[in-house]
Fold these 4 entries.
Entry 1:
Amino acid sequence: SQQGEEDPQALSIQEGENATMNCSYKTSINNLQWYRQNSGRGLVHLILIRSNEREKHSGRLRVTLDTSKKSSSLLITASRAADTASYFCANLGGNTGKLIFGQGTTLQVKP
Amino acid sequence: DAGVTQSPTHLIKTRGQQVTLRCSPKSGHDTVSWYQQALGQGPQFIFQYYEEEERQRGNFPDRFSGHQFPNYSSELNVNALLLGDSALYLCASSLGRGAFFGQGTRLTVV
């Protein structure tokens, strides 16, 4: 399977704490994207990092990419209860246009 | 801009039946991809349509077929439904970088 892995599978933190999720992938990539999914609904695009970038910020989100280790991490700072959701990384490899998703991390932020 | 819209939102079918799911892409997007997401799993790529042709296909049997219309909207058809086809089916549209997803169709096969 080309599908990557994410860890942890589940994460529970208190509001205000930081949450870090990690993702590993197997194929070469053009870019890596992170998505959020609330309660089995549609996926919301959070942030995209290109293969030649190492770090990217967007608001309270910070994404890093290590192509030598084929891994990425998503950091959510100062978490809020509304951040409770499942988070997926997805890599876009080559010219396929196909997104390969990880298994996801379920984040629970307790108020 | 309505974003990506999918219909219906929920559907219950019996084993052996056929189902058609529909997707309207975000305005200006010409590429539509379909994904299957089983409970507790990440989405799995089914196929992608561009210029009314299937451009890429994932590891899904021929029971899964699709179509793209001149207005870029798309349909996903599944024949001879199995219990294992129960899942959330997601449509994504794109124009270059990034993909925008619809809210999905929850299919339950009984």
Entry 2:
Amino acid sequence: ETGVTQTPRHLVMGMTNKKSLKCEQHLGHNAMYWYKQSAKKPLELMFVYSLEERVENNSVPSRFSPECPNSSHLFLHLHTLQPEDSALYLCASSSPGGGGEQFFGPGTRLTVL
Amino acid sequence: GQNIDQPTEMTATEGAIVQINCTYQTSGFNGLFWYQQHAGEAPTFLSYNVLDGLEEKGRFSSFLSRSKGYSYLLLKELQMKDSASYLCAARRSNDYKLSFGAGTTVTVRA
């Protein structure tokens, strides 16, 4: 499998549930990102990991908890979410330097009831 | 700070040309990216400009003016498959983070 993959593609959860989103990249990159994409709004950067260390946390509520066990995998743990957290969650990866373009996964469409 | 502006929607006819403008106010600017995103799919990289001027890639071209804080994406010989959202994103110096605009939805009509 190549590129950036995300699972699940769709997730419906209640406000009291705990779930996790998974991202995997097969591009040999060493930086990984979580973004939130809501309708008609810009992509919002949530977290950045570089060389498995978190280097950015964009004032994201603590009900979102990222984990990066190695340079190929990134998780987003979710608990006690709110309906306004319903959105498309995109994972991306890149190599610093040069063009540094980010490669995106297909996203997880999250609905919080 | 970061402020990226682009039009919300554009409509054009198959075979025509469309130009999507993007203005940015980015401290320590170091590059402008364009991405294409079809509904329900991942954004895919189209182009990257760091120097002033025009970069051409087949039917798509991207232009940058650093002094004006301005870029455009030019789509020529439009095809139905070009119907998508086009995202403009600016990068800061010494920083691998991107700040995105809200995207321009382009609809190509027969």
Entry 3:
Amino acid sequence: DVKVTQSSRYLVKRTGEKVFLECVQDMDHENMFWYRQDPGLGLRLIYFSYDVKMKEKGDIPEGYSVSREKKERFSLILESASTNQTSMYLCASRPRDRAYRSGNTIYFGEGSWLTVV
Amino acid sequence: KNEVEQSPQNLTAQEGEFITINCSYSVGISALHWLQQHPGGGIVSLFMLSSGKKKHGRLIATINIQEKHSSLHITASHPRDSAVYICAVRRGATNKLIFGTGTLLAVQP
């Protein structure tokens, strides 16, 4: 079974702190994603990466950066946490499209609940 | 208007009932996902569809590309089916998914 593991389930950080959220997948997937989920807004894409050292901005990248130094690991960084970044963060991974795959399905981690005080 | 709309937003059913959750979208897509999210956060992919119908156990998903509509059916519903069900569409060859805001299902014993 594919496993996407997020390093922290619950974090409480102070305003201005630098925060790292780590995500590791064990199925050699090329694509990895960071989303945040807020009530009434659904999942919104922050950043994604389609290969090592490659990254692209999603819909709400402001205040965030990412790092993908190894294929299995995708890190989300909050350079200076603010209270409006209190949210649930979800990491996901998906294989690259090939000519045909029985499922290019997407796999999610368990989520990281971040509270910034 | 959201590009992906789900209905209903909330649904309460009695155990054993047949349940239908609907998803309509307004963009051209290459695939549609149905996802399940239990309390606590983790999301599981139930189905990925690009045409027709798929079945897995008590779950059935259908898609009508011409009408830009998909349905998720749960037969013989059970309290353990209580969760948020999320529809997400993938536009063309992009890596991005567009998500609906979810349907909160509560199945009462």
Entry 4:
Amino acid sequence: QSVLTQPPSVSGAPGQRVTISCTGSSSNIGAGFDVHWYQQLPGTAPKVLIYGNTNRPSGVPDRFSGSKSGTSASLAITGLQAEDEADYYCQSYDNNVSGWVFGGGTKLTVL
Amino acid sequence: QVTLKESGPALVKPRQTLTLTCTFSGFSLSTSEMRVIWIRQPPGKALEWLARIDWDDYKVYTTSLKTRLTISKDTSKNQVVLTMTNMDPVDTATYYCARIRGWSSSWFFDYWGQGTLVTVSS
């Protein structure tokens, strides 16, 4: 049971928009800690996609965007492409466990 | 260019001690505000942080594994070493090292190693 809750899977057709939610609590996201998102392509290490809730590292397409409100955050992907098929994880910090916490991961399938 | 690479045994027996080395380049752990973390991922499961070490040798461990973990650094070799004692089959996972960036309410992991799969089996 992960501290941050994500849907196990989402799917969409090429060109569509999908969102992935990340629900936390008052000890992590709600406490003001930022949310970060990682993309993990099959058989590879995670790669940071969004940091500080809304910021994209250089090289990440602007099709990817992040938002945060209250105790939740969301990752939006527009103009879905086949290469976006991957697992996505949210990450934050939690006061109760005094450490970093991850969501359980969401598998994105491009139909 | 920042790179990190994990190395260590692919197979360990139950109750043995695991030693993993993270060799990195492109930054120095003697530089202020530099930090490295170990994270693991059991097959098909989510990510879990294990231990962190800072430029000033400050160390933090995840509570559930604190008694079994030791993290250290060799600044001259650009290496961070993680040891985990009393290995169990449930510790089978891919182990990653990563660099920590950001600020106190917003630390994230900007560069990751490729990961090394460790299987615990007799």
